[in-house]
Amino acid sequence: MKRVTLALALAALAMGSSAYAVVLPVGDTPLSGTTVAANPQLAGPIIADDTVPFSFAAYGGTVSGSVQSRVVRSSVDGTLDFYWRVINDANSAGAITSLRIGNFFVPVYDADYRIDGSGDVAPDVARRFATPNVNFLFGGASGGTLGPGASSKFMFFDTDATNYGRVASYDLTTLENGSISSTFSTFAPVPEPGTFALLAGGMGFLALAKCRRG
Question: Residue 213 and residue 175: Cα distance in Å, rounded?
Fold first, then answer.
């Protein structure tokens, strides 16, 4: 009986800890948003924050705005969360369909957006590819909700990383086929120093074994 009770308690704890996580499989996953109150793991100091302007030709004119990139260190366990927010200028030529994050390597893609943060337009779908790329889509398959003068909510990846660098990238798309911005660098996890040492040691061992076979 005690074992059953313990199993049920552990199951309830597991459900409680993952209730607000949106782990992305390959394909499209709807997003509903979360808050720090619902997910205390997200609370913590901002350790990196920058805003980069963009502009590119689309809709017979120019789509312009900026992307805010942010890194937050969790006050709960010291791990890092990576945020982005898209601002579409009031005089922009049209709507932005997606923010595309590329070369973002993590074992698990735990993504969502912050209901309790800045911005007025939420991404409703995250599209993960087999490659380390994820698109945050505004307006689902039809797109078009992040129009001129609008800004998005903060989209994020909740990670187990403790180190970061400017090693990933992003770009933006519009409803027009082929209208894509330039590619910009952004923050992402980098391997821990111990991981580099382990990798180097493993490569050295393989080289030694090859020499011995030779």
Answer: 58
What's the whole-model pTM score? 0.81
Cα–Cα distance between 158 and 166 in angstroms, integer? 17
Q: What does the DSSP assignment read for 10-51?
A: HHHHHHHHHTT--BPPSEEEE---B-TTT-GGG---EEEEEE
214 vs 207: CA distance, rounded Å: 10
Burial class of 77 by CB neighbour count within 10 A (0 to 12, 13 to 18, 19+): exposed
pLDDT per residue as tens, the chain (214 positions) = 434 333 333 333 333 333 346 899 999 999 999 999 999 999 999 999 999 999 999 999 999 999 999 999 999 999 999 999 999 999 999 999 999 999 999 999 999 999 999 999 999 999 999 999 999 999 865 567 899 999 999 999 999 999 999 999 999 999 887 899 999 999 999 987 654 444 444 444 444 444 455 4
Q: How far apart are CA 122 and CA 120, in angstroms?
A: 7
Residues in the chain: 214
